[in-house]
């Protein structure tokens, strides 16, 4: 039986040859690690042909010295001069690979291999469709985002656009949906949006264009930003974040132009999520007697929202606000879904505590803490846990107990009390 590294190397060589040989193979037919290794930033893809050398093996699998076992394979040749590896017979290599114990597992996760074994060798069980379904597309890669960014930054107004937003690759998102505690209603909402995106062409065909603009509403720290990010991870599309305060802060006169820039950028990055945080900015400026430039900016924003479309532009728009009551009907009617983020109830608080303490050792039960944290947001609960851990560390303990947790809750309550007093004074009881 051959060892894993030998199989890794043969799989890589087979994949490279299949990718080079068949014009219908595209970059999403390569498994993620191979795709990332051969990615060309300037060409925004993996140019054909790809070749395999010792340095690729080292980068991909961390193998410093290729072992004798690999050299012993009768169908493989290494050019000592260029250190390039190639098959002397592709067919012999493919037959050998197929006989290995873990071949079918590997084929299931490698679209290029699955394509070859299903279409060309008619191997039962090999499924290109299945392998494509489990292989995440290039849009999740950091490399993909970097290519787009470098292309845009070379354009005339590129730099101006890029500094207004924060862009993240799905693979860099640390909290996937499963690590967030959501109500049934929220889960249903999310599922609806995911399906709408999956069936985007169908919806377009039947004339339902009005999807893909979502407003997340709820108090601070209830998971709005986290859910928007997790959507990007779930849908495998980049996350483009803009804070409205950021684009108005510096040059008021530029605000309307900046809004146009952000939307133009989102279209360039599509398919993507455009996340507009602090959406209540719209309400604040409309209600008050603000500078004319700001009013113009708000109108520009509302118009830009009207004009952008998931079906036509591939941009899923998600906005978030802490102050729903400040929004007027002009703002509300721009969204086809409103997702509510209330403060978590006791059951949800316990689940959040469980998730946050997942990796933390100690003798404690979250059930006892959940009832003491009425009115806490998810982010408050995180803070309580962090406090407990830090306090234990001060006593040189890397495990926490029930006392640590309840002490942290007490301290948090005290601090929240001080903060809320301040809040009332500063905002006139807003
Ligand atoms: N329902 C939840 N499940 C798990 N973690 C949560 C939940 N709600 C909040 N958190 C945690 O709290 C932190 C802050 O949440 P997040 O930034 O998403 O809140 P937000 O609603 O966007 O707040 P803000 O209105 O202040 O922007 C996150 O790190 C997240 O892990
Ligand atoms: Mg937020």
Q: How would a textbook summarize the main sheet?
A: 6 strands, mixed
- The CATH architecture classification of the largest domain is 3-Layer(aba) Sandwich
Beta percentage is 5-15%
What is the averaged pLDDT score?
A: 89
- Overall outline: globular
Helical proportion? 40-55%
CATH class of the largest domain: Alpha Beta
CATH topology of the largest domain: Rossmann fold
Poorly predicted segments: 423-430
The overall strand count is: 11
Number of helices: 23
Structural class: alpha/beta
Count of individual domains: 3
Order of strands side by side in the largest beta sheet?
Answer: 4-6-7-8-5-9
Strand and helix map with partners:
Layout: H1 4-21, H2 32-38, E1 52-53, H3 54-61, H4 68-71, E2 76-78, E3 84-87, H5 90-99, H6 103-108, H7 111-120, H8 128-134, H9 142-153, H10 158-162, E4 166-168, H11 184-198, H12 200-205, E5 213-217, H13 224-235, E6 239-243, H14 244-249, H15 255-269, E7 272-277, H16 281-287, H17 292-307, H18 310-313, E8 315-321, H19 329-332, E9 337-340, H20 346-356, E10 361-363, H21 366-369, H22 378-394, E11 399-401, H23 402-427
Bound molecules: adenosine-5'-triphosphate and magnesium ion.
What is this entry, summarized?
This protein has 430 residues and is α/β, with parallel strands linked by helices.
Give short descriptive properties of this protein:
single chain; 430 residues; alpha/beta; Rossmann fold; Helicase, Ruva Protein, domain 3; 3 domains; 23 helices; 10% strand; disordered C terminus; binds adenosine-5'-triphosphate; binds magnesium ion
């Amino acid at each position: 039986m051959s060892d894993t590294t030998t199989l890794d190397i043969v799989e890589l060589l087979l994949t490279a040859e299949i990718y080079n040989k068949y014009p219908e193979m595209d970059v999403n037919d390569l498994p993620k690690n191979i795709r990332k290794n051969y990615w060309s930033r300037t060409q925004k893809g993996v140019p054909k042909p790809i070749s395999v050398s010792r340095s690729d093996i080292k980068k991909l699998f961390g193998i410093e010295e290729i072992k004798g076992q690999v050299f012993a394979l009768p169908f493989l040749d290494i050019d000592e001069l260029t250190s390039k590896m190639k098959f002397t017979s592709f067919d012999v290599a493919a037959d050998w690979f197929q006989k290995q114990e873990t071949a079918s597992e590997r084929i299931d996760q490698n679209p290029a291999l699955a394509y070859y074994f299903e279409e060309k060798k008619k191997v039962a069980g090999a499924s290109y469709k299945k392998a494509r379904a489990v292989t995440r597309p290039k849009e999740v890669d950091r490399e993909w985002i970097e290519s787009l960014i470098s292309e845009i930054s070379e354009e005339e107004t590129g730099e101006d656009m890029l500094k207004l937003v924060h862009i993240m690759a799905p693979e860099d998102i640390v909290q996937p949906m499963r690590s967030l505690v959501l109500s049934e209603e929220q889960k249903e909402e999310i599922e609806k949006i995911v399906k709408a995106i999956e069936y985007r062409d169908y919806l377009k065909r039947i004339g339902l264009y009005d999807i893909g603009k979502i407003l997340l509403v709820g108090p601070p720290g209830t998971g709005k930003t986290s859910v928007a990010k997790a959507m990007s991870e779930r849908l495998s599309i980049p996350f483009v974040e803009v804070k409205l305060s950021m684009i108005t802060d510096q040059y008021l006169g530029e605000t309307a132009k900046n809004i146009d820039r952000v939307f133009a950028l989102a279209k360039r990055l599509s398919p993507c999520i455009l996340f507009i945080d602090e959406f209540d900015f719209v309400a604040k400026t409309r209600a008050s007697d603000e500078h004319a430039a700001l009013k113009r900016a708000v109108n520009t924003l509302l118009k830009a929202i009207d004009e952008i479309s998931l079906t036509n532009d591939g941009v899923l728009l998600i906005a978030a606000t802490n102050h729903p009551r400040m929004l007027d009907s002009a703002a509300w009617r721009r969204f086809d879904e409103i997702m509510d983020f209330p403060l978590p109830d006791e059951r949800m608080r316990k689940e959040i505590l469980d998730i946050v303490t997942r990796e933390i050792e100690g003798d404690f039960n979250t059930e006892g803490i959940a009832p003491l944290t009425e009115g806490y947001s998810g982010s408050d609960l995180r803070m309580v846990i962090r406090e407990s851990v830090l306090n234990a560390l001060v006593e040189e303990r890397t495990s926490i107990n029930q006392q640590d947790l309840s002490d942290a809750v007490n301290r948090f309550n005290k601090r929240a009390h001080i903060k809320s007093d301040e809040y009332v004074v500063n905002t006139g009881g807003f």
